[in-house]
Amino acid sequence: MKISRTHVLFALLAGATGVAGSFAVAGYTRQFVVAPIDTLVVRLTPGPVVAFTIENVGDQGHLLHVALSVGIAAGLLGAAGLVGILAAGRVQRPLVGTALGSIVAGVLAWGITAGTTAEPVLAVAAGVPVAILAGAGAAPAGSAGYNPSRRRAMASAVGALGFLGVAGVLGRDQSAGSEGEPGPASADVVPSPAVRERLRQADEQRLDIAGDDVPGLVSEIPNFYNVDINQFDPEVPADDWSMSITGEVGANTEVTYADLIDMSVEHRYVTLRCVGEQLNGRKMDTAVWTGTPIKPLLDGADPEGACECAMLHAEDDYSVQFPVDALEDGLLAWEMNGQPLPKSHGHPVRVLVPGHWGETNVKWLTEIELLDEETDGYWEQRGWHGTGPVSTVAKLWDTTELDDGRIEVAGHAYAGTRGVGRVEVSLDDGDTWLDADLSEPLPGDDVWRQWRHAFDPDGVDEVVVRAVDGAGTVQTGEAADPFPSGATGWVRQRIDR
């Protein structure tokens, strides 16, 4: 049977409505037919393509692989619809052919969806619309070369568009429901007195900055930057979570969530910065994290590996290698600013290793594997330089004209565990440097500081800013792109008068 343009139209409608049906019942979760395809697309994308997208497209890069994944899903389900239409055309009896085409298309679409999502019940929602559209597009028996009428095709297209709209509304409702925590709802959790004290201290120590573009010393959770390899985050209920310490150890160890929160508790200010951001980007934030130190757990497992290194594994198959001595300073965190970790930040438990780039602080932690030989983690396999210490940076996030005519520049500075000793501002292209005002340091080894400086703009065309770490080392002025080891250089800002 020859494939006509009308057959292709119905196949396209079948593919689109199949994806929409899955979205209607699963929402934007890992049960959505697009989710496992997107995971595969991300895993198979070559490292140079990933690096180019991070540097040149930024936050919108995820839309590219999601769009590709939606297209692949629609193509697979549309192909199922087309197979059904062609199967119907081989049957001489019209009603039997239409029924057969619908069944073949629906079963194939259901099988594709169930096979990719492992959710056979939810997969029915993808199979049914594909079956209906395939039946509508099936040519009656005994009419070789016959195409459904134009009116029939138009009616089907209008119906499909209506279904897409309804599915979109239902899917958004499902997505909104999935965004809540698997454990207690964050809005119902009152931070502990210790956390409230740290939040109060951070608020008191923030600088009086005239502009509005510099956040406080503790970032609000909705504004805290979020980057991971997933577009569809894992859902791990706290009651089901456990972490194992395996590999080159004297004794394998397994810890449940109940075990973890019963251990000694610390509340730490910790700053995270994204290795893939541009030099003056805004993917740098600080929170008060509640958790328990990793070291006692490692000591109990008795690490024995020759390389003195460990691979951290996550629920989403992400992995990062750390030296054991760096990992020993880490925290297994389950709260953020006094609230249970949001799903997107690794609920129920994530790792925080002081002074290392944000992407190495593994979310949804499941295993710490002690190694005998060094092994590349997820980002090292894609050409990035792994878990090295974060580089020193002073960011210029706000420029405001004051009432007296002066210009105020302000931002944050961060140097990992080295701490920020001072921030310097130059008004003459680096020939001379002036000390900026700094917020008082918060307790902790891995915390940013705010800075501000006001000046008379007469004769000033550009401001240059740099930080000096606690050891007296000046932030490098050598400019480098984010790939492969993080952006470096001095931030410069033109002054327009």
Automatic annotation (TrEMBL):
Coiled coil: none annotated. GO terms for molecular function: heme binding; molybdenum ion binding; molybdopterin cofactor binding; sulfite oxidase activity. InterPro entries: Ig_E-set, MoCF_OxRdtse_dimer, OxRdtase_Mopterin-bd_dom, OxRdtase_Mopterin-bd_sf. The keyword Membrane applies. Keywords: Membrane, Transmembrane, Transmembrane helix. One of its GO terms (biological process) is sulfur compound metabolic process. Residues 235-379 form the Oxidoreductase molybdopterin-binding domain. The chain crosses the membrane at residues 66-88, 95-115, 121-141, 153-171. This is Oxidoreductase.
